[in-house]
Specification:
CATH superfamily of the largest domain: Tetratricopeptide repeat domain
CATH topology of the largest domain: Serine Threonine Protein Phosphatase 5, Tetratricopeptide repeat
Number of strands: 0
Largest sheet: none
Structural class: mainly alpha
CATH architecture of the largest domain: Alpha Horseshoe
CATH class of the largest domain: Mainly Alpha
Distance between the termini: 106 Å
Helix content: over 70%
Number of helices: 20
Shape: rod-shaped
Radius of gyration: 38 Å
Number of domains: 3
């Protein structure tokens, strides 16, 4: 029966350490062999395992491993008890890792012997690798180890769904210790911390996830939002910029970036970000108006007027936009423009005497006699009221 028995978790460190030492020194000539007592313990442990008397099998397997940390059979069977019987996939994973490390150690010794004496290497292979079917065993162990990760992930996810976030975090961290390059695991740790409202720890793990994923606009935006809520606008802007790099056609990233730059009083950068929003989304009136306000402060008069024109097209009855634009055009002596936008102003508010006055003056400036007469009469009608 080819599945593991248990050993107290505190002994795992000793097992791994012994494997590493053996790999370095190659002190055991017959790598998986045992002395008389060890061989007896292994037979007895296997017998108890077949009889499902796991509490007696476990300490015997432990003694076997203490005698020879490279005895793959004992380590594997310990892992199997935790995997199939106790459903403790964290410990099972540790034993399967130890078994794989033992197999790798044996192969490392074989590779070294091949370089030194091919005859001895051949004998070693037959006695220590072929005899125990280590090639097939390594593949099996790797699959079991991978299954442990899947089960641990499912357990963690179940705890997460049950809102037991502390237990979920512990499970996910156990996975992280084995798979530190799994961005999904790291992100779930972060999400669990978010649920407990520990935003500082959540940020730490989200940043790790972002480093692992490389490209993920949603994740970068999530990090930016957390920094924004902390009023750390400098960091927030950097992460919104990262989100925009990952997803350059999404105007929201640039809009949020602009807000951050505005809070940092970096008006030029804020203006550029709003203009990027407008480039992607030309009908975004909010971005147009915000860029317009910045254009005033940055003394970008031409851009200011063009932005007002965009706003006027999108909001044809916005009196504030139309009135400001009409006056600005008159100041720039763009009388044709005044005739266009002051007319829209008057159409939106036929009580706007200032609009009619601008129309009359612009008609005179352009020598449009018909319009001069029309707006003069209209202007006089205001005086009679």
């Amino acid at each position: 029966m080819n599945f593991p028995n248990s050993i107290v978790q505190s002994k795992l460190v000793a097992i791994f350490a012994a494997i590493v030492i053996t790999l370095s020194l190659f002190a055991i000539e017959d790598t998986q062999d045992l002395g008389p007592r060890g061989a007896k313990n292994l037979r007895s442990a296997n017998m108890y395992l077949s009889q499902k008397i796991y509490d007696k099998a476990e300490p015997l397997y432990k003694e076997v491993i203490e005698e020879n940390p490279l005895n793959v059979e004992a380590i594997e069977n310990l892992g199997g008890i935790y995997y199939q019987i106790k459903k403790d996939y964290v410990k099972a994973n540790k034993y399967y890792s130890a078994a794989l490390a033992a197999v790798d150690s044996i192969y490392a010794k074989y590779e070294k012997m091949q370089q030194e004496d091919k005859g001895d290497a051949k004998k070693f292979y037959k006695k220590n690798i072929k005899k125990y079917d280590l090639e097939e065993k390594k593949e099996t162990l790797a699959k079991l180890k991978n299954n442990c990760w899947l089960y641990i992930y499912k357990q963690a996810l179940n705890y997460y769904k049950q809102q037991d976030y502390d237990t979920a975090i512990n499970k996910y961290k156990a996975l992280y210790n084995e798979t530190p390059d799994s961005a999904n695991v790291v992100q779930m740790i972060a999400n669990s911390y978010l649920q407990t409202e520990d935003n500082e720890k959540a940020l730490k793990w989200l940043v790790k996830a972002a480093e692992l994923k490389g490209t993920d606009a949603a994740l970068a935006s999530q990090i930016a939002n957390l920094y924004f809520n902390q009023q750390n606008f400098e960091e927030a802007a950097q992460w919104y910029k990262k989100a925009a790099t990952d997803d350059p056609e999404n105007p929201n990233h640039y809009y949020n970036m602009a807000i951050c730059y505005t809070n940092e009083q970096k008006e030029e950068k804020a203006y550029e970000a709003y203009m990027k929003v407008i480039e992607i989304e030309p009908d975004n009136l909010d971005a147009i108006l915000m860029a317009n306000n910045l254009a005033i402060r940055l003394d970008k008069s031409d851009a200011y007027i063009e932005l007002l024109k965009k706003a006027a097209e999108l909001a044809p009855k916005n009196i504030d936009v139309l009135s400001i634009l009409s006056y600005k055009l008159y100041q720039k002596e763009d009388y044709e423009g005044v005739l266009t936008y002051a007319k829209k102003w008057y159409d939106a508010d036929n009580s706007a005497q200032e609009a009619v006055q601008l129309l009359y003056q612009s008609a005179r400036k352009t020598n449009k006699s018909e319009l001069i007469e029309k707006y003069e009469q209209l202007y006089r009608s205001f005086e009679q009221e």
